[in-house]
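ligand=heme C
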Amino acid sequence: MRLIAPMLALAALAACDSGTESREEAASTRAVQREHTAIPYGTASRGTAARAAALASPGSSATPELLDRGRERFLIFCSPCHGASGRGDGLVVSRGFPAPPSYHQERLRGAPFEHIVSVITNGTGLMHSYADRVPPEDRWAVAHYVRSLQRTEAQTAGASE
Ligand code: HEC
């Protein structure tokens, strides 16, 4: 009987050790999971390197290649709702999907590139995220194309006045 007490103490110590280990393991698992949580744009500091890279501009100059790529991706992924010229009158809308706002309204003309990239990445309101279909570098191409649509529309409107 006298042996049992120290043995129980040892067993308790061992349990203690493994308890610490599994807590550390759990903590590191949580850290990994946190990396994948979608953070709404503007509500938190840029969390991970991947997220920062996804939102970082590849440079402000829109090369013809970048715009071509953006146009191609826009026509595939965005125009079904936003319409080829961004007025919010795509085919899906004509079939009853709620109309998105026109890109040519004041507020969106003034929105920074980061806002468009963030909407593609995270979605907004009724619009789902397109992060799984439009990779980070293409989001900037699409954002540049959206901006070029806005400029063209503004020039056309200016010319007709
Ligand atoms: C299935 C339809 C659909 C598709 C496809 C779609 N959108 Fe949208 N988008 C919407 C709707 C609806 C809204 C309005 C969301 C709201 O305010 O509830 C919206 C809003 C926006 C806005 C304005 C956000 C604001 O600040 O008001 C931008 C910019 C935008 N979309 C960009 C894009 C881009 C770029 C793509 C392609 C990668 C795309 N959308 C694809 C439906 C769509």
